[in-house]
């Protein structure tokens, strides 16, 4: 699918290059040594998934059905996006910097709020270093103002840099956090035999982006990586033409847009006993002036900003990547 349209100005004026993708989809998990292990289940069907994705909010409602003759209690897990702290030492584009619940995640089961537990780990160079950071008294979710690493003895700086946990800012003589945060919300849920259970999630996405865009400026024929980027979002000739028209109207050599990315993991929907019987996706680009592109078949425009996809007996094999171009406020 290549959905696009052109209208009003500047919805996402505050977005800059962001860390992490908005990850999602319920999956059965078991709490094994070393953390959560995601497993398939042969007894619980995902009868429907109703997913709404925008730059402001992600909402999803699932209907599950236990096909067995016995009640099943399992750990339902919801992985948050991996967040790698940037050079400035803060998590970009997260609603609640410094908080474990940094995407304002909440969930309900059969309409009742559920208190989830949070498993949080910090990785450097792909190795779990949570215990070391806790021993040092370092918060796993530092804010931009945090300077506790700098206060450590200089001899430890090199060790933390080697472990992928720190990065030295030579100009200010500071040691900045550089680890990757992996966070999972999980809770115990009973699926009664022969009965449906509705689980709902709501959270604010981490929106990646940049002030500007290579679309309409970078030649895909000369840049293989950029050509792949366009394929990842199914950018078509129609969207490219819309960008060119905007450049002409702005009398500018550069494309008058800012770039926003949202990614959503759909493939864990294949962990259930059968295909998703009824799948509905609504992508909301936020303003009629924005351009949007994502890969899907059978897309239907249902409002000036919303696009709908419906599938029956659906087994997701790829994840969802959404590109939204917002008109630049400087043009």
TrEMBL record:
Q: Which InterPro entries match?
A: DUF4424
Q: Which residues form the DUF4424 domain?
A: 24-323
What keywords are assigned to this protein? Signal
Show which residues constitute the signal peptide.
1-24
Q: What is this protein called?
A: DUF4424 domain-containing protein
Species lineage: Bacteria, Pseudomonadati, Pseudomonadota, Alphaproteobacteria, Rhodospirillales
